[in-house]
Write a structure and sequence with these properties.
By secondary structure, this protein is of the alpha+beta class. Helix content is 51%, strand content 21%. The strands form two sheets. Strands 1, 2, 5, 7, 8 and 10 form a six-stranded mixed sheet that branches. Helix 4 runs antiparallel to helix 5, helix 6 crosses helix 8 and helix 7 packs across helix 8.
């Protein structure tokens, strides 16, 4: 039996962002912009034993196998399987086989939502309600996505001078992710038939949780109170918090805070907007309040966080 090997690191915990991917010599980057990173290969997995992944990720195992805990959920990934990882999760206890390699797509929440539009509900159901993160492909499906990847590689290599280069890359990626979303919907239909005996109360709970996620992700300004979101959903704040806790293990306020921090992280690290512009964009009352909020959550000022 092929053995796993442990991943050891001088760092006990690492935040996986666009910068850490781009600056890691063990990672072969095929393409990157402010919202997408395409990883062609990881030659060695020497840096991370525990990671906080700030982006949505779609990871295809091309050889070998791996296992890890993701927010406490045990995951195993084999060749021709796809791991789908939502943003802001912590991956621990990572073990891989010596021949493990992957191809991966890392996306901001904004670009993922623009790709899927109303189909983001399928992603939300998979990630947060049913907590299914592995899709297994047969040989025909692998061939389908291999052709997509070959087209994507050609577009990346030969189209750099094209004024619509970014749009072409995104269009190809959107098509591939929509195809994957179709596979996810089929999986959910199978789960749905198995769970058809669930009572109506649980279905209503899941529906409210799903609507809350849609509302949260749809808002450019996410820093609203639980009461404000509950009012939009025509339910009580107490019930909304209970619904979120039941379906995801996190409270409504924790969901809101995570999304606000992700937006702050994105604008400070991935854009050239001034602190005042970011403050206004995220509807903080003033830069002083924004600075205190960032300091409380990240342990440093906005400028320090941007330059760190």
């Amino acid at each position: 039996m092929e053995k796993y090997k442990y991943i050891c690191s001088m760092k006990q915990h690492e935040e996986v962002t666009f910068q850490t991917l781009a600056n890691n010599e063990d990672v072969q980057i095929g393409y990157s912009d402010n919202e997408i990173v395409i990883v062609d290969s990881i030659q060695q997995f020497t840096q991370l034993s525990t990671a906080h992944v700030t982006m949505n990720a779609i990871v295809i195992c091309t050889s070998g196998k791996a296992q890890a805990q993701m927010n406490g959920l045990q995951m195993e990934l084999y060749k021709n399987q796809v791991a789908i990882i939502p943003q802001n999760v912590t991956v621990t206890d990572v073990m891989i086989s010596p021949d493990f390699d992957l191809k991966g797509i890392f996306l901001t929440n904004r670009i993922l939502r623009s790709f899927l539009n109303e189909k983001i509900s399928v992603w939300n159901d998979m990630m947060y309600i049913h907590r299914q993160h592995i899709v297994t492909m047969d040989e025909d499906e692998i061939l389908f996505y291999t052709h997509f990847y070959d087209m994507l590689t050609l577009a990346i290599e030969r189209g750099k001078e094209n004024p619509y280069h970014t749009e072409i890359i995104q269009a190809l990626l959107r098509s591939a992710i929509l195809g994957l979303c179709g596979e996810m919907k089929w999986m959910l239909s199978q789960v749905g038939s198995e769970l058809s005996t669930l009572n109506n109360k649980q279905s209503t709970s899941q529906s409210h949780f799903h609507r809350f996620l849609d509302l949260l992700h749809a808002n450019d300004v996410k820093r609203h109170t639980v009461e404000a979101y509950a009012s939009e959903l025509c339910i009580s704040p107490k019930y909304l918090t209970a619904v979120c806790k039941k379906n995801s293990g996190k409270t409504a306020n924790e969901w809101i805070t995570e999304q606000v921090l992700e937006d702050i992280r994105y604008y400070l690290r991935q854009t050239d907007l001034s602190i005042k512009q970011i403050c206004d964009k995220l509807a903080f009352p003033n830069p002083s309040f924004f600075g205190k909020y960032v300091k409380d959550h990240f342990g440093m000022t906005p400028l320090e966080f941007r330059n760190n």
